[in-house]
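Quick illustration for those who missed Monday's session on complexes.
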Amino acid sequence: MNNTEKTMDQIINLCKNRGFIFAGSEIYGGLANTWDYGPLGSRLKNNVKDAWRKRFIQERRNSYEVDADILMNPRVWEASGHVASFADPLLDCRECKMRFRADNLIDDFDPDAHADGMSKEQMFQFIKDHHIPCPNCGKHNFTDIREFNLMFQTFRGVTNDAKSIIYLRPENAQGEYVNYPNVLRSMRAKLPFSIGQIGKAFRNEITPGNFTFRTIEFEQMEFQTFCKPGDDLELYEYFKGFGRQFFMDLGLPGENLRFHDHEKLAHYAKAACDIEFLFPSIGWGEINGTHDRTDFDLGRHQEYSGQKLEYIDPFTAERFVPYIVESTYGLDRTVLALLCQAYDEELVDAEKNDVRVVLRLKPSIAPIKAAVLPLSKKLAEPALAIRDELAKEFMCDYDETGSIGKRYRRQDEVGTPFCVTYDFDSETDGCVTIRERDSMEQVRLPIGEVKAYIAEKVKL
Ligand code: GAP
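Prediction with glycyl-adenosine-5'-phosphate bound:
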């Protein structure tokens, strides 16, 4: 199935019914734009994090991971520019009182209009000139466009005064920047080197979410490379390609990925490019960003903290504030893209109109690697013993209810690459049947060889 033939509703239903993603606070009617990952969703997410860590932290030279606090000194967000300029251009419909992002209204009305290159005034004029209707009530009666800061505020201590305001971080990056001098010193790092982090970020997004594509709480995997000024543009091009390859290796095919160079740049960037994925129902959407942030961030932190953040070149003794090239990945969007890409409906038997739903996740990121299925409940004991042995190596499921065919289908739906069937012959020949998800082919193996056989095929 092509992604354009799938719908987001199919993906959402599978996620809700099969333990991947549930509506946040569901028994209370939910909370808009929040989602909870279930047993399989959280495994999938962790597998993507492991793949990212392996590729970005473990395999790369001069790469260091940090785990900075979500709450930071509020001066960080003044220095970073977020207090002054991290805002969305919003307008309200005077008729139905719904609130919209002006750039989204324009892009949905005319995808070729490129609202990201327009000023607030140009966006207002465009909406007026084209008489763009309210997507909710169809009328055209909007307020002026106002800038709304996206940062969540909270208060420290017991008084709700302005002095005690702190922010939930809207991006991971600043946690990596403020730790630049600590990592430099403690790890005896030399330029170019990188600091990466996986963690939560929070944004007061008002636009309806498209499932987990746009949420108010989400996870980022961010990677900052500190370099000499002048080396930045080469690194910027390099990380565009590196990011694309990472997605392809996770299982997103090249034809469903594209680069989108930014016309209007964020306050910190000299160059910026997104990697977009072709989502069902949503269309092309950003899953990654590469940003040449120059010396903006460290320069500002130097100014606001009063601490010297210069690098002294060990060979030339030259002093300078390093440039930063950022490669940032939305973890939730990556997981959503992988689920969308993997979802497939396959006609198994045309005469019987037998269609199987199969999640063709790469075995290395599939939440469950193997399911052990005894042919009869009478065989539960030896089958459970195999399950327990395999579970020492990778995530396993065990299922003894329903016909074997139905059990295979249940595992197909959640992307389990291997089913291990223990039958009555196993009692005498000491072998089990291993059925592969995509080809549905079966091989018979001695029980003692199963662990190594599967482990080899599911490793990252
Ligand atoms: N440090 C730079 C930065 O935060 P960004 O483009 O604003 O850049 C990086 O965000 C990535 O985080 C995006 O490519 C996207 O995948 C993800 N992201 C941003 N806002 C999000 C939201 N509201 N919900 C889910 N993911 C989001």
